[in-house]
Structure to design on (106 residues):
């Protein structure tokens, strides 16, 4: 059986967090533009809200996957200390996104 690469999962989680931050910046910039500068209906700016919701959903799924791996001791070689370190790391990433996640409209 191949051991799960938890670091790869954290990298993926961090990429999603970075994407969320980037999309929020784009959204804030879009809201600051004068109405005459609003994009046309075919512009990719129109998809920012949907992209943001999708990225946030993916982020939540990735975080839940990592939490499951840690909670159920899926990686037999992982020490308790390493597991606790990874839990704190996950909590920090989630806290940052939760702080900005309140701006994501359901």
């Amino acid at each position: 059986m191949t051991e799960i690469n938890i670091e790869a999962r954290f990298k993926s989680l961090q990429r999603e967090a970075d994407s969320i931050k980037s999309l929020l910046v784009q959204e804030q910039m879009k809201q600051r533009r004068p109405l005459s500068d609003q994009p046309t209906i075919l512009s990719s700016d129109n998809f920012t809200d949907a992209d943001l919701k999708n990225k946030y959903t993916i982020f939540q799924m990735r975080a839940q996957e990592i939490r499951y791996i840690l909670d159920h001791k899926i990686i037999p070689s992982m020490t308790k200390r390493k597991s606790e370190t990874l839990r704190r790391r996950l909590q920090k990433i989630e806290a940052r996104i939760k702080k900005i996640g309140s701006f994501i409209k359901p």
